[in-house]
Amino acid sequence: MDAAFTAEQDEIRRTLHELMDKRCGPDDVKAAVATPAGYDPALWTALGSDLGLPGLALPETYGGVGCGTTELALACEESGRALAPSPLLATAALAAPLVLALGSEGQRAELLPRIATGALTATLAVPGEGLATALGLTGDNGGDWSGGGRAGGIQARPADGGDDGNGWRLYGQADQVLDGHSAGLLVVAAHTGGFARSRTLLFLVHGDGDGVVRTRRTALDETRPRARIELRDTPAELLGSGDSDEVAAALAVTGDAAATVLAAEAVGAAGRALERTVEHVRQREQFGRPIGSFQAVKHRLADVYVQVQAARSAAYYAAWAAGAEGGGRAGGLALAQALEALRTAASEAVQLHGGIGFTWEHDAHLYLKRATGDELLFGPVHLLRARAAESAELFARQEVTV
Questions:
Q1: 250 touches 242 (CB < 8 A)
Q2: Domains recognised in the chain with CATH numbers
Q3: What top-level branch of life does the organism fall under (predicted)?
């Protein structure tokens, strides 16, 4: 593994760092989350049409930049540092890879160039709270998490009684859809086949299509807008060939890459929370001296620094592994370490900022909510680690011959 970044990768980081410092300060974040979209459209235009960030990991054939998971992770580390609210994660890390992996040539040619420029935002909609399971991060995604049996979850049936993929109808509900209230395209996981041919497939649904009811929900972390999606006999187009095994495999690969991007994003947020805390303890005085000069405070911040750097190394390794042949899948494990580091850094930020750290006016609570919200949506940490250990057969039972 070569730990050094290329000149192009360093330029991506520098450009995003400068843009976020200029356009996405704390006041900008609070103003953006209060809008109906939940993000700043002008900033999204800069990220999309100007910089091509949503297409960073898409092939040039479909209007993308032709880079990989590493570049997208580095970009998201900078957006995470600013806690920037945007549909980048849902569009570029969840929906676009599935369209690329499973879509027909016509579907790719129609959707991916618009996604690459930010003209079309997209997201992945799964029923209930099963996003982490669907992505294979906390359990096997080969089950009936999309709504097995005759009811529950999201159900799909052929519109004309056939099964040719040209016309489907969906009905059901997804309660925790990232950026679901504003996405132009929904990649919906639905159950079909009843008991005889029970399977989970993916479908393409227009965000404002017939029978789609979208409601933005109150979220713990307002920088991660979520929505409830209700599908009422909604027209849908099958994504892919209808092979449930291919769908499960594509979701697992997408999940690992998304976990890597999320890990880098969490590391960026944790690093910034630590920076702001260090700045504060250098200025805040108690008993006639800066509180940062006290040994106890130094030790606490040193522990946070080590944890953040370890999480950053894990995220970078996962990004390298995602693009290396035979590199394996380390995204889930990196995400667990990054979320833990962010939670620690945010908790220490609240504590060491003292009274102001507990107020709504200060920004410390935003980092704590990001850590908690991401763990609720993509974790929890102990299940991420358990799944990683299971996938690696770390505790596989060995037969002993006597």
A1: no
A2: 7-120 (1.10.540.10), 123-242 (2.40.110.10), 248-391 (1.20.140.10)
A3: Bacteria
